[in-house]
Amino acid sequence: MKNKSCVVVLVGTETNSRPWVKYEIVKGWNDKKGIVGIYIHNLPWARTGNCSKGHNPFDDITLGDNGPKLSSVVKCYDPSSTDAYDDITRNINAWIEEAIEIRARY
After folding, report:
1. The Cα angle at residue 88 between residues 54 and 22, in degrees rounded to 5
2. In whole angstroms, how large is the CA radius of gyration of the chain?
3. How do residues 10-48 score in pLDDT, each as one tens digit?
4. What is d(CA 41, CA 31) in angstroms, rounded to the nearest whole number?
5. Which of 13, 21, 63, 95 is the most buried (most CB within 10 A)?
6. φ and ψ at 69, to 5 degrees?
7. How high is the pLDDT of residue 16?
8. Can you tell me the distance from the alpha carbon of 58 to that of 45, in angstroms, rounded to the nearest whole number?
9. Cβ atoms within 10 Å of 49's Cβ, excluding its own
10. Terminal CA-to-CA distance of the chain, rounded, Å?
11. Are 59 and 71 in contact (CB under 8 A)?
């Protein structure tokens, strides 16, 4: 994440159960980087087809000791079910810029 301004979290069915994902999210936030999530369940997988929608990892992280959930601040986008790749391609730059702007307010 060094020299980067935003952390992009690709959210799949097992993302939330990965300890290093939470670590990277918290580290990115503490380093004042923008954070954005993108659900990937609508991307076609060669071996298995589409997968189930994963749990929002930002729901399990709070701001401060008794603060709001990070999901109340950080956005997690759900690309089109019919054209996920193109939806992500068209919008990822704007999503990243918005995440950086959001982080600057906190």
Report:
1. 40
2. 14
3. 999 889 899 999 999 999 999 999 999 999 887 766 566
4. 29
5. 95
6. -65, 145
7. 87
8. 24
9. 7
10. 19
11. yes
Query: Given the structure tokens 């702007």, which residue do they identify?
Result: 101
Determine contact, residues 28/35, Cβ cutoff 8 Å. yes
Under 8 Å between Cβ of 61 and 26? yes
CA distance 104 to 35: 11
Q: In what order do the strands lie in the sheet with 6-11?
A: 6-11, 34-39, 76-77
Determine how many CB atoms are found less than 10 A away from the CB of residue 37: 25
Burial class of residue 101, CB neighbours in 10 A (0-12, 13-18, 19+): exposed
Residue 51: CB atoms within 10 A of its CB come to 15
Of 94, 78, 79, 29, the C-alpha closest to 58 is 29
Q: What is the pTM of this model?
A: 0.90
62 φ/ψ angles, rounded to the nearest 5 degrees: -110, 155
User: Which residues partner with 34 through β-bridges?
Assistant: 6
* Residue appearing with tokens 């999530």: 37
